Amino acid sequence: MGSVSLKIGDGTVRFRRATLCSSAFHLVMLTSVLITNLFALYVFTYAPKPLSPAVLHHKNISVISEHVAVILREIESSERRLHQIERELSGYETLDPSLPSLPSELKIFLNRHPLPLGPDSRSKITEMVSSVAHSCARSSDLLAQFMSYKPNALCPAADSHLPMKLISRGCEPLPRRRCLSHTKPRQLLPLPKCLWNTPSFTGAAVLDKQMWIKPRGKNDFLIDDVLALAGGGIRIGFDIAGGAGNFAARMAERNITVVTSTLNAGGPVGEFVAARGLFPLQLSPANRFPFFDSTFDLVHTMNGLDEGGVIGMGQDPLKALEFLMFDIDRILRAGGLFWLDNYLCVDDERKRTVTRVIERFGYKKLKWVVGEKANATITVKAQVYLSAVLQKPARG
């Protein structure tokens, strides 16, 4: 295109002629600046017409709604974060199968498995999820030890007390294992002889052959007297924390089936109960009872109210007692009996607390006795015991 030279002193300044592209670019820039200035002039000089009250009210409502929506979203976000923190503190979602520290058998058990026949048409469930208590994460070292074994071989003999340790820490239910249990031959006696004559190798508890037959005090109710209160309507029962199964044995003599929840504390208690021809259930009172609603005609317990899961459930004694009582009420049928047998009240406050919780359910008090028992082995004042037979009312 050429250029124009201008001689100034001893220097030369050259002005290159503008090309077509550079001219177009400058034109675009000039147009942009002009438009921007015109828009700014319009903004500063424009005076909007005043809005009518109705339109202004509508706009205010819209603005407020937007602010409320923002606040609700922030609250939901905070709640999700709070729940996540609670789960982390409680041990939820910490048994991650991808963790390298978990034994391979535990990883296999925890993995989701597709349903063998495909998705369920009613529930729309497509996978099976294994049941392991979230509290197991608090005892991950014991759980790893429990699940460390050789598949298809004998279970480690040294871990016979591990299930009891885990359950006592709230790790319930335990995961299933793929190892073979140790079995020993045992002498089995026929019913009813086996009820009060047990093989010598299962001597894990002491048999009390007098209780419920010969009273030792006013708090001791006789079995036949309690059954008479039900008018012959007792067929199946549940004994919470029933130990060696003495209560179930007395009921078996009367053709009444009683399930005994017990733990292997100090010995093979479950095996001992089974050797008597009775039904032992390895279950702590902290766990939800694995029975349908309104199942039992009779629920019996002695010290089960104090074993109702204070440690396992991480709750204070009052809350643990309430959860336990509501579960007892759930499995007891209308008209059924709840037999609280010689419950030791550590103090008057505990007696009042238990009384208030029980009275909340509106049970009919067929028997209610508060008395003292002197303990010959303890040189302290006599202890207060509460015994009661309560009948559940019909509701709804």
UniProtKB/TrEMBL annotation:
The keyword Membrane applies. The chain crosses the membrane at residues 24-44. The keyword Glycosyltransferase does not apply. Residues 68-95 form a coiled coil. Keywords: Coiled coil, Membrane, Transmembrane, Transmembrane helix. Gene3D superfamilies: Vaccinia Virus protein VP39. InterPro entries: Prob_Methyltransferase (IPR053223), SAM-dependent_MTases_sf (IPR029063). PANTHER family: OS06G0138600 PROTEIN (PTHR44067:SF3), S-ADENOSYL-L-METHIONINE-DEPENDENT METHYLTRANSFERASE SUPERFAMILY PROTEIN-RELATED (PTHR44067). This is S-adenosyl-L-methionine-dependent methyltransferase. The lineage of its organism: Eukaryota, Viridiplantae, Streptophyta, Embryophyta, Tracheophyta.
